[in-house]
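TA notes, week 10

Several of you asked for a full example with nothing omitted. So below is the full record: structure tokens for the whole chain, then the designed sequence directly under it. When grading your own attempts, check the secondary structure regions first.
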């Protein structure tokens, strides 16, 4: 596992908001957000925008619950936000997430994805101790981790963790 180095200089990791249970015969991939999830996605997107957290590029899993979450961010950030949907983020490994981040040349990149991979990516970037100290209860739905690269330490650090 290779931890990405800048660019990007800032990484946003956003776990999709709470999803509905699958209907009989419905694929996991096609589960939308539930009512709470839609509200939480709007709240977290607005909180991020209010704090000035604006990625240059948003990369989202193509799963419906991630697209629903990404849509809320798009509305909150403005219609100029570059959004890309990537199939490889669904059922991906932590290495896939890190490779996708590492392949970007924008200053700030947001991934909208799934747990447990989102939590594993955060841990890979900031280390086990920082992860355990910051998120003892795990990575919640609609949680947004904001990471900045600390050039003096040549390491990523968790700058903020925004929750609903």
């Amino acid at each position: 596992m290779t931890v990405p180095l800048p660019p990007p200089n800032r990484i946003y990791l956003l776990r999709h908001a709470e999803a509905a249970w699958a209907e009989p015969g419905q694929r996991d991939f096609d589960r939308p957000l539930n009512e709470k999830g839609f509200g939480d996605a709007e709240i977290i997107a607005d909180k991020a925008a209010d704090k000035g957290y604006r990625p240059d590029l948003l990369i989202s899993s193509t799963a419906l619950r991630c697209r629903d979450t990404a849509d809320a961010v798009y509305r909150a950030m403005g219609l100029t936000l570059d959004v890309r949907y990537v199939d490889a983020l669904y059922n991906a490994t932590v290495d896939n997430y890190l490779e996708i981040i590492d392949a970007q040349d924008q200053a700030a990149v947001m991934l909208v994805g799934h747990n447990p991979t989102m939590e594993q990516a955060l841990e890979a970037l900031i280390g086990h101790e920082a992860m355990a100290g910051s998120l003892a209860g795990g990575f919640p739905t609609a949680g947004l981790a904001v990471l900045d690269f600390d050039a003096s330490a040549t390491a990523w650090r968790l700058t903020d963790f925004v929750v609903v």
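The chain has one domain: 10-162. Use that as a sanity check on your answer.
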